[in-house]
Amino acid sequence: MTFNSAEEISERVIFPVTESQSNGIEDARSYSSTTMDGASITRLYGYSGRAIRSELIETIRLVFVRLSALKGNAARNKGMALFPRKIDGKYAMIARQDNENLYLIYSEDLYTWDGAIRS
Q1: Confidence band (pLDDT; 50, 70, 90) for 43?
Q2: In what order do the strands lie in the sheet with 25-34?
């Protein structure tokens, strides 16, 4: 998506557009992390009424916006929080995979999350 940079920020609205977002987009959490192309990162959830899909919003100056679904066996549920910096050269997230325990998960590319390590 691209917004008009002259538009007030309060006028820039992201509406549900995919099946996984059909019952809403919720729980946006913003981070001070940036991608290699300088975009800032926000994570959110789409909810279809049957399933939750974790998604990532990358934005440059809140004008250019890209939504991407997170992939991998550890990219599920709503209890995920992205660390603001890489750990040992990898993106890291803390996650509640089983709604009880915390897991540390890593990603090489920010979009694919596999192999949760129970803390």
Answers
A1: low
A2: 25-34, 40-47, 52-60, 64-69
pLDDT in tens, 48-77: 556 777 788 777 777 887 888 888 888 877
Tokens coding 112: 């694919």
> pTM for the whole thing?
0.69
